[in-house]
Every structure is written in structure tokens, then in C-alpha cells.
Amino acid sequence: MAKFENIITRFAPSPTGHLHIGHAYAAAQAFNFAKRHNGQCLLRIEDIDTSRCKPEFTQQIISDLHWLGHQWPEPVMVQSTRFEIYRQALQTLIERAITYPCFCTRKEIAAANKHPPGPEGIVYPGTCEHLDYETTKKRITKGEPYVIRLKMDSALGLLKNHDLHWIEGVGLEAEPQKRLEVAAAQFGDIVLARKDTPTSYHLSVVVDDAAQGVTDVVRGQDLYFATHIHIVLQALLGLPHPRYHHHPLLTHKGGPKLSKSDKHRPTPTIKSIRDQGLSLDDLEEMITDHLKAV
Ligand code: GLU
């Protein structure tokens, strides 16, 4: 198994709100992993969703990460400055004839409901894959919004001689490591570019991990399934495959993971902890409590 040398990992928050204690735990996993292996942890701001992301959240994230004691090399990568680069990656996939425009609304997709849900929710029923060229062209010319989807079956066909797998570090330590086989068909035709942006989370994350030379992705278990898709996209774009380390998530007692959007169970933000004058030790205690809550 590969040695843990010249490690580069990253912490990649989305500035759609304030960091909460779950993010503090995730950041510690990534930054401490780099420290333990004499490597570097980079910061990347994942703000492709320009309607939900706000510069003031980015400023607060940077201030909170400093308060948490983390340091990273400058410049920070900011995804909203890289749309042209994602567009080029998308173009590569379009030219390989493994994509198609899709005009379906969420409602239409839910109503078609042909497949059992995949690990990431509803699997796209493939409606627009069968639209003829003229119809597609007409709808685009009319200005109808569309996403670009990956033809998963065709993509996997192109990759049939690739040994699609990833190395998962267990418990964030050098040993043991597991080899996991990619099973991407279950996700169906995933979105590569959204209606409002020329990219998607999946596309920009693989482009940027490669651009930043990331050797080890340390992130929460909620993104475990996305890894199947990321390995496929890396193979299609000729990008290297980092190792992956998916850490546990903090949870509320008896169940759900902490979330910034759960109004019934507000999760303490780092800002609120700082505003109350609490210390890093207090934060540590809160994190330990939530780790035990499962
Ligand atoms: N931006 C993602 C998030 O905030 C993390 C992406 C990743 O680590 O791959 O959940």
C-alpha cells in the first residue's frame, strides 16, 4: 500500500452559512491529518452556488478557522473564480459524446420515478437522453434552462478497461487501508453542469483536487457515496485519483447528523461559541458529546 509522504489534503467549506461544531470537527480531521504526516492542508472555498453563498460567510469562515488554530498556504482557492476552467473540463466530456442536455424540472423527475432511489436520492429516469437533436436545439435556442448530464452507461463503457477503485484510509491512519471497488451505475446520469452554473459539485471538486495536487481527501462520511462518481470523473478527465478518508459525522442524540439547515435542532456555530466567550476547550467538550451521542 502507498506510503503517506508529501501529503496534501484540503478543507473545502461552502460559504452558505456559518461553520458549526460539525465543521470544526471536520476541519480538525483534515488539518490534523496533514500535520501528523508532515503534509499541508489547503483551504478551498466551494462557492459555485452563487445565489446561496455569501462573501461575509467566507470572511467569517476564515476568521473561525484561524480562531480554531488552523493555518494554510495562500492563496486560498475560490471556486467562483474558476468557472472557465470547469467549462473546459465539461467541454472535454461533451466532446467525448458522453453527455446530454436535460430540460426536466425536479417535479417531472420525481413524477417519472422509474428507478428505485440510489444512494444519493432519485435516479434520473433518462427522459432527455432520447430527445432528438432538432428538438434539443430548438429548446436551447428558445432559452429553456437545462442541465448537462453524464451518460453514465456510456461513460462506464469507455472506462471498461480501467480498474475503477479507490483506496480508503481507515480511521485516518496510514494503516490499514482498504481497496474499494467503484459501483457508479447506481447513481444514473448525474448532473455535470447545473441550470444556473456551468459546473456542479462533482465536476468542480475533481478538477480542483487535481489542480491543487491533493493526495488525500479527508472529508465526512456524508460524501462517501460521491467518491464513486469522483473516481469515474477523474478517469474520464485523465486526472489522478487521491486516497480518501471519510470520517464519522457528529450527530444529535439518537440520530440525525448536525446540519446548518435543521431549524428544529439548531447546531451551535463557531461564531456563537466565540460570541459567548467560550474557549476551544469548551468547543472540544461539545464535539466529544456529539461524537458520543450516536
Ligand atoms: N463543500 C463540501 C461541503 O461543504 C465539501 C466537499 C468535499 O470535501 O469534497 O460539504
List the helices and strands and how they pair.
Layout: E1 8-11, H1 21-36, E2 40-45, H2 55-67, E3 77-78, H3 83-95, E4 99-102, H4 106-112, H5 133-141, E5 147-150, H6 152-158, E6 165-169, E7 177-181, E8 191-193, H7 201-211, E9 216-220, H8 226-237, E10 243-247, H9 270-275, H10 280-292
Parallel strand pairs: 1-2, 2-3, 9-10
Antiparallel strand pairs: 4-5, 5-8, 6-7
The structure holds glutamic acid (GLU).
Glutamic acid is lined by residues 12-14, 46, 205, 219, 223.
Summed up, what is this model?
The chain is an alpha/beta fold and 294 residues long. 36% of the residues lie in helices and 15% in strands.
The main β sheet shows up as: 3 strands, parallel
Low-pLDDT residue intervals, each spanning 5 or more residues:
none
List the domain count as a whole number.
2
Radius of gyration based on Cα positions? 20 Å
Q: How does CATH name the architecture of the largest domain?
A: 3-Layer(aba) Sandwich
User: Which structural class do you get from the secondary structure elements?
Assistant: alpha/beta
How far apart the termini lie comes to 32 Å
Strand order of the largest sheet: 1-2-3
As a percent range, the share of strand residues is 5-15%
Q: Mean of the pLDDT scores?
A: 92
The CATH topology annotation of the largest domain reads as Rossmann fold
State the total count of DSSP E strands: 10
Tally the helices: what do you get? 10
Account of the 3D structure:
This protein is of the alpha/beta class and about 290 residues long. The chain has ten helices and ten strands. The chain folds into two domains: about 1-80 and about 250-294, Rossmann fold (3-Layer(aba) Sandwich); about 85-240, HUPs (Rossmann fold, 3-Layer(aba) Sandwich). The protein has helices at about 20-35, 55-65, 85-95, 105-110, 135-140, 150-160, 200-210, 225-235, 270-275, 280-290, and strands spanning about 10, 40-45, 75-80, 100, 145-150, 165-170, 175-180, 190-195, 215-220, 245. A three-stranded parallel β-sheet has the order 1-2-3. Strands 4-5-8 form a three-stranded antiparallel β-sheet. Helix 7 (about 200-210) crosses helix 8 (about 225-235). The longest helix has 16 residues, at about 20-35. The model has no long low-confidence stretch (mean pLDDT about 90). The site of glutamic acid has 7 residues, from loops.
